[in-house]
Each structure stands twice: as structure tokens, then as C-alpha cells.
Amino acid sequence: MTRAQHIRLLLVGVALPALIGLAGSVVTLSLLPVLPDPVAVHWGTSGEPDGFGSPWILVALPLLSLGYAAFAFAVTRTARTEGISWSQRGVLATGAFLAVVVTAAGAGSAVLQAGLADATAAPSVLPLLSTAIVVGLLATVGAWFALPRHTATAAADPSARPVLDLAPTERAVWTRRVEPGRRVVGLVIGGIALAATAGAIVVWASAPLLSLVIWVGILALVIVAVTSTMFWTIRVDASGVDVRSALGAPRFHYPIEKLAGATVTEINPTRDFGGWGIRAGGGRRTGIVVRAGGAIELRRVDDRSLVVTVDDAEQGAALVNALIARSAGRIQ
After folding, report:
1. What are the C-alpha distances in Å from 241 to residues 233, 254, 316?
2. Structure pTM?
3. Alpha-carbon distance 158 to 187, whole Å?
4. Which domain holds residue 262?
5. Is the Cα torsion angle 42, 53, 219, 191 positive or negative in sign?
6. What's the rounded mean pLDDT across residues 18-36?
């Protein structure tokens, strides 16, 4: 990537959402003297305000885009030397949408309530947010095309595929657990525990019992989602390749005759797939990405592929290729 392209990437993907958020907070700050206290911070489906809080909430809301800008900057830390992937380009373009929407929610709400003596008289924010969503989507499309083109994923060299020395009648099975490192597991567990405790205290102190029950239900869904996308088992045998979540679903199963080959690749989660979990990447790739490092890439006969980050990926790929060769009659 050239220096000019890198500057354009930083301006569109990082600086743009940050500046939109900062501008929204500055506008809200300038309106603080004429805002009611408390202000409306939530509207019901009828368009009437039904939640109130400090005006500073509206000041802080647009600043969420700064956090996303920091994340976007971290995602592109290798862009100058390696370019950006399809997933990274998507992450950067999405920042414009987020910035427009949260700025409209904060600064827009402040503009609607400026000069009111009582926030209960605030007009509905729904038309404003609907407009912001449309503008945000248009901004994301514009950002996508303004960003430098993503680098296409290089196709694996078929001659570099490892092959296990497997006798015609020999049986072999390769199985591994697919899971994040201990540090990541600790951070996930700690984050869920912290969110559960803080959320339960807030809900219990300020809301009816039903809200607490709903909060527990949401938390349970989060735990299920994390477990089903971050902990897997992969198995290779004569019947094919089976990749199964710790909960049994989702599951990916590919019979040997549906596979064209397997290779070993190095995966950077943010560069190649835009994050962790079950992800879609460029080059018709689906990823089960739980950490950075070595991965097995299973290429199907329809030219789609599944990438799984796993230890001992070379041994697994070698067995897959040996089974494909035996199925095709190339091992006598």
C-alpha cells in the first residue's frame, strides 16, 4: 500500500467517524445551557419520551464513535505493509454508519430539546433516527468506495498441500479441540461475570423483577452464543471432516468426495476475517476463528472453503489430502 493510500485509509476509516462523534459532542456541549434537566434519553414506540437522565448522557453518546475509531485503527495496524482484507475494509466502512447514528441519537436529541422547560414535551426522535440510519448507510457505501481496494486472498498452491503416507487399507483418525487461548478465555469469562454483576445490580435497584428475569435471559443467550462460536471439535476420518460446536450446533460436515484439498495457512483474525467466531471472509471463505496462528483450510469442490484455526493443522491437512487421494483411486 502506498503512503497516499494509507493516509486515505486512516482519514476515511479512522478520522472520519472520530470527527463526526467529536462534532456531535461539541454541538451538545454548546446546547447544555438551554437543555432541560433531566433530558429525555429514551422514547417509546408511540413517540413519547419514557426515559430521562442527565444532559451529559447526550454529550457522551457521540463519543462512542471514538472507541470504534480506536478499534478500527488497531485493525489496520499492518495495513501499510500488508494491505487490507475484505473484512478489514468492511470494518472501516461501518465506522461511518455507527458515527452518524450515535451522533444523531446524542446531538440530534439535544437539538430537539433545546429551549424546552420540561423534557416530557420533547418531540419524537424516531423520524430523526430513521433519517440517520439512511444517511449512515449511504455514508458507509461512500466510505467503502473511498477506501483503498482490499487485497484479494491468495489461492493456496496445490503442490504445497501436505499428504500423509497412508496405506490403501489403513485406518486413520485425526481429532483436535478448537478453542481460544487461556488468556482469551479468562477475559471472556471475566467480561461476562462483570457484565452480569453490574447489570443485575442496576436492574435490581431500579427496575421490576420482570426486568431482572429478562436481563438473566439475555445473559444466558450471550453465554450460549460465546460457547457455540468459540469452542469446537474437528475430526477427520474416512467419512470426511466434521467440525462441531461444543453445544452440538452449529456443525459443518464435508464428505471426502466433496473436498478438493486441504492446506495450512496462517490467520490474523482482524486482517483475514474482521474478528473472531464464525466469520465470512474474502475469496468465498468461511472462518471458524478463535485465535491467531496456524489453521487448516478445507477447499471444497465448488471452490468455497472453510478455515479453522487449530493446533497441528499440518497433520490434519495431510490426512485430508491422503483420504481424498485414496477416494479418487490415486493410492493403490
Report:
1. 11, 5, 10
2. 0.60
3. 38
4. 169-177+232-327
5. positive
6. 94
